């Protein structure tokens, strides 16, 4: 469904640190994502998990290597309202987000009432997003991503969105979607979430795929390596 082939990503570092000012984040990463699976990505802070998702979503272009997605398929990063237009209402932003993900205007309109209901924004749904609290923005962002169709859903550590009550509801809804016919790539630091949601997992370390495969064994290898590092 989606494939990264020998993907390398470098950032230029303004301070001239790293390798003569070049920060090598991903180094020839190759991976395959299959239809209907939930692929987990694990690894320490800063190893390039979010960068990998951004490359999959087409937001970032690799320095070298290639990304291929099956023709006609869309991949979208579940972002918590980062791309909202502040002057537009929650309703108009939800509409815009649905259309940006490929829905026709007619289809996008059909999503709106369920987005309003699930997000529990009430009358604020009609108000400009600039008047929202950060929790309200997250609710709108999460719900819009949840309710609209996307072939490959890329999720970056967001299952802890909102207050306790909304978080529980959001996690249950996301779990239901992930377990249905949805292809997902899921970045998380939570073993419990990776274990309960993923079919397969990839462990990134020093910009490379360090191990991949069955969730239980890769998680165990990863945990052992962290324990060894903390003892050293
Ligand atoms: N715009 C940028 N310019 C320069 N360096 C960047 C930029 N974005 C990310 N990086 C660097 O790329 C590396 C990988 O970042 P990334 O966000 O992909 O890590 P991550 O594995 O998702 O980390 P975390 O677990 O902390 O979320 C980090 O060292 C980060 O400093």
Automatic annotation (TrEMBL):
InterPro entries: AAA+_ATPase, ABC_transporter-like_ATP-bd, ABC_transpr_TagH-like, Bact_Polysacc_Export_ATP-bd, P-loop_NTPase
Keywords for this protein: ATP-binding, Nucleotide-binding, Transport
The keyword Isomerase belongs to this UniProt entry's keyword annotation: no
Transmembrane segments: none
Residues covered by the ABC transporter domain: 2-231
One annotated GO molecular function: ATP hydrolysis activity
Assigned protein family: Belongs to the ABC transporter superfamily.
Protein name, per record: ABC transporter ATP-binding protein
Organism in which the protein naturally occurs: Sediminihaliea albiluteola
